[in-house]
Design a protein that fits this description.
single chain; Rossmann fold; globular; alpha/beta; 8 strands
Length: 260
């Protein structure tokens, strides 16, 4: 029994150790400080024994091409803060519009600068991976963005080889607004923008609550639905070697990553 003045001397032991709780893969994500959706989506989708590590970029709560372009200034620092001792297998910048405005390669270079041990990713890279994996060419796109961002996104997708049959935005200005649009509205919006010739519907933005209703939209429209967080998470898992077929998040998870 311990008494004041006693000195504790523990018995020498050899504790049993393994690779830790998250032995299959560790994924890191750089989120906007205004994002109300992605963190929940990731933890809804994460398989057993896979880690999700998150840091946040200070973000102006007014989303324009100009404000998005500033994210690059803090990218390397943000990447360096995501559990450097455990060295995540993949680190992804979790912003669709920012990935487009800044550019995939520029972002990947900054992530690699802050975390040289990781596979650098951007959200829109995952979207392109997903569309190519499903052999999609003709798409319709729904976003919460201002039309200046929608125009930039349409040009980006066109330059990647996709036919954008329609792109419609809600012309909301803040990330907080993005995250407050209900999942039920995203179902309605997806049906409104659907086109008979479209091979898939893409609901663009990591800060919207569309991932939780992918299955319902696919059931209604009879075609694949890609959302930003679903596509990014799927691509990050595949790049980290995790091949689980997750249920409840669309047809995409029936596929492996073979086109990147």
């Amino acid at each position: 029994m311990f008494k004041p003045g006693d000195t504790i001397v523990s018995t020498a032991r050899n504790p049993e150790m393994n690779e830790g709780r998250h032995w299959r893969a560790k994924l890191g994500f750089i989120l906007m400080s205004t994002d109300l959706a992605a963190e929940g989506d990731f933890f809804d989708m994460v398989p057993n024994d896979v880690a999700v590590h998150i840091t946040r970029l200070k973000t102006d709560d007014y989303t324009t091409n100009e404000t998005l372009s500033r994210h690059i200034d803090f990218m390397a620092d943000a990447a360096s803060r995501i559990q450097p001792d455990t060295k995540p297998d993949v680190i992804s910048y979790s912003c669709t519009s920012g990935s487009i405005v800044i550019g995939e390669e520029k972002i990947k270079a900054e992530i690699k600068k802050g975390a040289p041990y990781t596979i650098p990713m951007t959200l829109v890279t995952g979207v392109i991976d997903a569309l190519k994996e499903l052999k999609i060419n003709k798409i319709v796109v729904g976003t919460p963005y201002l039309d200046e961002i929608n125009t930039k996104e349409a040009e980006f997708l066109f330059n990647k080889g996709f036919s954008v049959l329609n792109i419609q935005g809600l012309n909301l200005t803040t990330g907080i607004e993005f995250g407050k649009v209900t999942p039920e509205y995203w179902i309605q919006f997806a049906e409104e923008i659907n086109h008979d010739e479209a091979e898939a519907i893409f609901l663009s933005c990591g800060g919207i609550r569309s991932t939780e209703v992918i299955d319902e939209i696919e059931k209604r429209v009879g075609k694949p639905v890609i959302t930003s967080n679903q596509a990014q998470f799927w691509s990050c898992l595949r790049r980290a070697g995790v091949k689980d077929n997750l249920k409840g998040f669309g047809r995409l998870f029936d596929h492996q990553l073979t086109t990147s």
